[in-house]
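QA checklist item 7 of 12: single-chain prediction sanity check.
[x] sequence parsed
[x] length recorded as 270
[x] structure emitted
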Amino acid sequence: MDRWGINPNVLNVSDATLKFYENILTEVLEIFPSPYIHIGGDECPKEQWRASPAARQRIQELGLADEDELQSWFVGHFDRWLADRGRRLVGWDEILQGGLAPGAVVASWQGYAGGVTAARAGHDVVMCPQQHTYLDWRQADGPDEPVPIAHVRTLEDVYRFEPVPDALTETEAAHVIGVQANVWTEAMDSPRAVDYMTFPRLAAFAEVAWRPLPSAAGRDFTDFEHRMEAAHYARLDALGVEYRPPSGPRPWQRRPGVPGRPRGGTPPER
């Protein structure tokens, strides 16, 4: 793939397609014992379904209202299929469109809203709002930084991420079963570039994830910085992790023509 953006091609909604993915998931379940199976479900354009006689016929046969409900039907099929095998489906928050499958877990990446909606409906949620947990977002302004995707998210920004929004009641908040940091690598050309974007922010995120939720009250950024300087940067050095130093970009990152910088503009936000 040599271009940015969302691919317009979507799955056919035939029985053969369902069977194909059942076969794939059968192999996935044999390899991975996790109770949670993430099937994606994000950024699904509906134009091809709207133009497809087969998709329109499927909508009519199933008594669905529109293409959003068609996607919900597809997700619901695999929600039931996985539940029959003792597993739970996880999907990005777009699976809320058209109605949420009964046992689905929502990974809320488009901010908090999807997670709040799902939790209020009694569904479990993994909070991963992009404005706090996307580690491909740049860590500082300036021409020496890597590809300027989205907005600046500093080490402190990540450290102060609160997974449980105030909008949730105590009962609803219990549905926030975890958090997740995401590192999308389409603008990173090497493992060292991934190291640079991921660390030390992943260390800050770990403190968020490992504390009981809600966790903000027990965090002290000044103390965290001290512990990073006193010990943890040395650990990363010993492991060969090419993290972003507090002083700024590494020399290899500063050279002209940073690897991975696309020509002709800034890539879109995920």
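[x] summary fact logged: Residues 221-239 form the longest helix (19 residues).
[ ] second reviewer sign-off
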